[in-house]
Amino acid sequence: MSHLTDDELMKRLAQGDQRAFAELFERHAGKILGYACRLMGDKAKAEDVSQDVWLKVVKAAPSYTGSGHFIAWAYTLTRNRALNVIRNSKRLDEAISVGGGDEGVDVPDREELEEKVMNLAEVERVKQEIDKLPDAQRVALVTWLTEDMTYDELAAHMDTSVSAVKSLLFRARRSLEEALGVRS
Questions:
Q1: Alpha carbons 30 and 36: distance in angstroms, whole number
Q2: Are 61 and 16 in contact (CB under 8 A)?
Q3: On the chain, which terminus has fewer CB atoms closer than 10 Å, C or N?
Q4: pLDDT per residue over 103-139, tens digit each?
Q5: For 183, left (φ over 0), alpha (ψ -120 to 50), or beta?
Q6: pTM for the complete prediction?
Q7: Domains of the chain and any CATH numbers
Q8: Which helix (H) or strand (E) holds 37?
């Protein structure tokens, strides 16, 4: 089956061919999980998102038109699901009152903590600032940086215009520079 295109595999999947699903999964599972990890910043949540995406692929197979590339469609499903999870998580965080709640927290020893802080302080700071970006800016920036897409490809992936993508990336960069105290 490896000679079949993704669109042909989707047609077979729509007809109930489980081998077609296995082939699609083998081809693209790593890409979808990696993309979800970059969007979510948490592997466990990304695995949940990835699983939801594959369920959606199976359910949507009968209505899949194949009008674009399968992987672009799957990335769109991944992005949309990740954004929904992020939004729902933010709502849940806002609904839960923040109390003492330090029970059960595993505190590393001082040397381990100092080493981690020395090695990861800036990376973590950048990640935190990226997480604070509005959803559209964060998705555009993370996708652009990690998927090595051109502006045109990113615009198609995000279902928007090239100028909108450039604007999102510009605003994301400006926000990060301001938050991190960096001048360009």
A1: 10
A2: no
A3: C
A4: 544 555 555 555 555 445 566 677 778 888 898 898 8
A5: beta
A6: 0.54
A7: 1-96 (1.10.1740.10), 108-184 (1.10.10.10)
A8: helix 18-40
